[in-house]
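User: I'm curious what two different proteins look like when written out as structure tokens. Can you demonstrate?

Assistant: Sure. I'll show them one after the other, since each token string lines up with its own sequence. Here's the first protein:
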Amino acid sequence: MQDSLLVDGLARALLAGKATPELLFHRCSLTLGRRWRWLRPLTQRYLTKFGTGARPRHRDVVEFLRTDAGLRHAQSKYSEQLSVRLLSDGRQMLPFPAAENWDLPAIDSAGDLAKWFGLEPGELRWFADLKGLGYKTKCGNLQHYHYRVLAKRFGRIRLIEAPKPRLKDLQQQILRWILEKIPIHTAVHGFVKGRSIKTFVAPHVGQKVVLRMDLQDFFPTFGGVRIQNLFRTLGYPEPVADLMGGVCTNSTPWLVWEEIASDLGLICAGELQRLYSRPHLPQGVPTSPALANICFYRVDCRLAALAKSAGASYTRYADDLAFSGDGAFEKSVERFAVHVAAVLREEGFRVHHRKTRVMRRGVRQYLAGLVTNQRMNVPRRNFDRLKAILTNCVRVGPESQNRDGRRHFRAYLEGCVSFVEMINPNRGKSLRAIFERIQWPR
């Protein structure tokens, strides 16, 4: 019989059911129509290689079977007696154990996913763009994103990739019905309901030393393959996981970098183009923060354990990492920072070393725009500036203070006052009193 038919049949059997020895042996026996003695060791070898984590891809199982010495020996010895009955592809949901109680929607095929989105299958393939056609096209109307480049410190840039309305609706559906049901590590405070910048900073207030570290190119570091693997870990079959991953990731067209190469320089533009040209999590997409938090779970566990061993506290807000501790941690903080950088490098991330800060009690300890030395507070300079703007709005009118031309200047100022109220209610109360005296034009 043909080797490819045998391998394909066994691959379907191994992928079809839950990964327990008896069930796999039973499925393989049904495929071959007989309970061959060599099948049980084969399933054990399969579980050794693929038994943990997400269900493997079909191509990886096929490659495993083609190179398995035991199967090759069985083929040569029993080639005339082997017959294959192809079973179904087994596209049912197979979540890993912890995900079984997360109440995720069951989507067993690409057709079911299209119906879940309210799309035709062809439309879904176009939005997912697994072939990377959006990267190659020169027509902006055929692209799914709007692009905006923002300058950052140290000569870097931030690329905002804003999805167009129809694609954004699909991403919000994934966020609402799937991603928001997945638990997040307790150290994570960015883009998590019930947590905020205040809860991120709180564990580090009044500590002898605070270590602040920043990750470089945080969102684009999460590649499309990692996102697809996450959806397969949640139990979705390979075609469904690939399409969901395609909807949530993007390959930035080369024309975006061609337009700004003269400003960045050819070397920097080329480096960024290589980073963004592969499928990645776009900054500006509703699903990206949640996916980044979920995919970073293993790193959060490692960093939290490392901090605990050093007697320190650890929190994270997106790409900002914060560690703090008492005198014992203060003595080893520089060496601890090296260990953190090594862990991050092992996990595929890079530290922005220019932004690393070791802040002892004798200097201003500063996290996420807040002072943390003795109590959490807004920097005095920021408070005085906001107070002066509000006072001038009362004296000479708000139009004179809107120097940046903000369309919703009133809402902007009210947001600034509310932020101060959240951090320091007493200071916020005084600013609120001034804000209420402003005469806004009708």
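Here's a second, unrelated protein for contrast:
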Amino acid sequence: MDRIYMDNAATTAIAPEALAAMLPCFGQVYGNASSIHETGRDARKLVEAARRTVAQALGAKPSEIYFTSGGSESDNWAIKGAAFGNRKKGNHIITTQIEHHAVLHTCEWLEKQGFQVTYLPVDEFGRVDPKAVESAITDQTILISVMAANNEIGTIQPIPEIGRIARERKVLFHCDAVQAVGAIPVDVNAWQVDMLSLSGHKFHGPKGVGALYIRTGSKVDTFLHGGAQERGKRATTENVPGIVGLGAALDKAVNHLEENGMRLIYLRDKLIRGILDNIPYARLNGHPLERLPGNVNVSIPYIEGEALLLRLDLAGVAASSGSACTSGSLDPSHVLLAIGLPHEIAHGSLRLSLSDMNTEEEVDEVLRILPGIVTTLRAMSPMYDDFIRSQQ
């Protein structure tokens, strides 16, 4: 069997439809989309067609879609733009402890600029309580930022309820939907969000391109200054091939959302059952039902996540871990700690994330080889020996 790729939450392979749509932009349609001559106008038509595609996928207006370099930039723009754009009204921001670092590090930076940030806890499944969000609002609150679905454990947040609260209290609401767009239905009006971030490479589009939805009338400062691109809100020459690829990939994802979702849920649940049934003491992380269709995150006690990843890689399987060792940190995932896992358990976590390109045969193969790898690693663990003796 060929190598098995189950790290789709990190990035996805580009869809053939997206690649085909992009190729002319490197040759025939190479103009600057901001130029007024015909070559530029041809590029502009492609950019605006992609903008309409993104807007339709989100239930938004095309004029509310701004193209960016990816999810991290979209998060930064939304949070910093809303913070500084509304500083005269207040200086308080509400978010959660399990946000992506593009949100958390931005909020931490804003604290150095004089803003106050409340980091709300989550429950054992990684869900924030909307009542906690409401209770945290003060007369100084200008922004709430809560992700739609967690990139590590796949838990889907109660975004519509939080959106209703934010709307009633007249507080801007930003949603990092990088993991959600293309995986579950997203509707900015049903969710009542004022800003929403997405990234092309999470749904089989190209890397280096994303978008930020900004509801008409929301006071959000310009992020990049320079030219008049993106209606004067984000300077820099448009990435025409990337934007076109993002549009084509999102169009395909949305058009096949229901059928792909049902298939992925089947594969996800088979993978979860197989792991929990065949690896003693393994536990599922994240909500058992309210989770992304392709997300599997399990903790396997008495092994190191990085060692598990290396063994899987040698066996031809690409996955990721709850451990942050590869990033140079000795601390485990902040998400796993936030849901109450002790350090030693969080270090032995495994994320397998599926896309519509994965097959049932690949799931079966992972279930065949994973228990043996775990057994081998546990055989080298004195902690596991001590645990087994304590159970006798």
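A detail about the second structure: The longest helix spans residues 257-278.
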